[in-house]
Amino acid sequence: MSDEEWERFLRESVAGAAGAPVEPSARARGVEQRLKAAGAEKGAEGWRTYSPARPRRRRTGWYVAGLVAAVALLGVSLFPAQVFGLFDGDDDGGRSEAPLAAESKRPREAPGAEPAQRPTWDEPFRGSPAARWADGAAGITVPAAKATGWMDAAQVERALKQSRRFLVAAGLDRGVLRGERPTEAIGLLNPHQDDVQEYLRTALSSKTLTPTTDPLLLFSRFRPQQAQLVGDVVKTRGRLSYREGKRGALEVTADVTFVYPVAPAGERGRGSDVVRTIVRREVVMSWDDPDKIITEPGTMSLVSYTLDLTNGGCSAPTGYFVPPFDTADKQHADEERRIDPYDRSKPVDGDGASPSGKNCAKATRS
Fold this sequence. Notes:
Strand content: 15-25%
Shape: elongated
Helix content: 25-40%
Number of strands: 9
Largest sheet: 7 strands, mixed
Order of helices and strands: HHHHEEHHHHEEEEEEE
Number of domains: 2
Distance between the termini: 99 Å
């Protein structure tokens, strides 16, 4: 029976009924039974049967996500600085003890204030932003290398590694810190750069030093009879950057802060007077094209070097840092000028140098 015939049959049945349904004819019932039997054998749905709709799965995840997003937006509107600080690579004010991410660019502001705690022999970085800085060479960020000037990318990468090696040899080598000759660092300097070679000869051999011949301009040194390092760790934070310099040279700039915990020589334990000498160095190095500048393979020329110094002595240059374990050396600091030695958002303050060649402004914290 076709669909049209079946529909007509139903209409006629309804129309002819007097308030009661009229059963279909035997022929109609027989046709319907044969169709149902055929559908059951094939596993198909019954003819004109009703298939209920599948219940929709409730998308509760979308509602939860929307609720979380609303709460996050409310938090940002009420506490923007704290929320964005969680995702900022800069210092977050010391609110977390987790190590800071490597510094890839100049931070926007100084690290926040730390609890007022003095350093101790067991915790020499307590109460300092440096507690979250990396140890030694790990705190000096080296950027990705790309071809620059006369160098291809591989040569730039080697030059950057050698530049960091110079900073490590000049500011972290334990022998150099004890006043020994910085042989490795000197070996990385162009022996044909006459002014620098003259500076090295005078700074490391003369007993009479001037602000321009002070070895501290390049090297970190303590007199072993006066001061000793506390522990095995020097904290660092800084980075290298580079560009094309004069005559196609690769010019590398290092901006690194070193934090040296020291105590009076011969003292140990809880009663020691621990002081943090903080040195921020900016060194500009030129890796010259040997076809244009007389140089030696694996060496570079110095373009400039300067430093900011806290708790390292402000008297006439002696060739060694002089931590103020007493108040004798504090009178030489410029009380009118104050600096935060942990603030790396500003350039090194070369204009703030004292007659000794070192920046001896009053430190707001150490």
